[in-house]
Amino acid sequence: xxxxxxxxxxxxxxxxxxxxxxxxxxxxxxxxxxxxxxxxxxxxxxxxxxxxxxxxxxxxxxxxxxxxxxxxxxxxxxxxxxxxxxxxxxxxxxxxxxxxxxx
Length: 103
What we know:
Order of helices and strands: HEHHEEEE
Strand order of the largest sheet: 1-5-2
Number of strands: 5
CATH architecture: Orthogonal Bundle
Number of helices: 3
Radius of gyration: 17 Å
Strand content: 5-15%
């Protein structure tokens, strides 16, 4: 029984570490989007892949996961498919929510 307890605790802690890593990536992306490095009011997943401040976000699944986390917590809002961003209709784009933005 004791060994089973320690195995379940190890699994729980490992799961918490994975969640923390995902949150950390999303928080890094959030700070970058809100800082002077990103001048636009919208962001595309492909732009995160190309310009992200950390290498860990420069793959499409990681970029989409971080954007989904930010969306879940209200830091970005998914735009409707076909929304025009920088003069082009986009399949997937997000509006960045900045302090003082009315929702």
